Hints:
By secondary structure, the protein is of the alpha/beta class.
Amino acid sequence: xxxxxxxxxxxxxxxxxxxxxxxxxxxxxxxxxxxxxxxxxxxxxxxxxxxxxxxxxxxxxxxxxxxxxxxxxxxxxxxxxxxxxxxxxxxxxxxxxxxxxxxxxxxxxxxxxxxxxxxxxxxxxxxxxxxxxxxxxxxxxxxxxxxxxxxxxxxxxxxxxxxxxxxxxxxxxx
Length: 174
């Protein structure tokens, strides 16, 4: 017989794992050195979510623009060109509410996985490659428009968090 405590422990473990962000980055080639400028062309989008690549691209550009050590320039002028792909973006319900009409979704999680490469100007091999993924939760609203609005805001927060992590890993390599 399954005890209530073991069920609660299992649910807590699942909730802790589902809400955590995961990120991995690794250097593929030698260090960039003292790069003073980067270019971040629009990332590729391998998802079915139109426009999500712009959210992630702008978040990464913003991280480098806020970094006093680097400037963001056009592709032809920068020492480092950072490219990447938003590989996955998925949403799924994580909590349910019971009411007079049955069960309703109370909260969702949206997850994304992005791969980033940095190349020195004129070099074919990347000087940095990293894969980053994380998740963000958002609430269901009383109507589909409100839920979609919450979802888009969660994707924006997710993009900022993932690209912050990518920036931090890349500057450690630069």
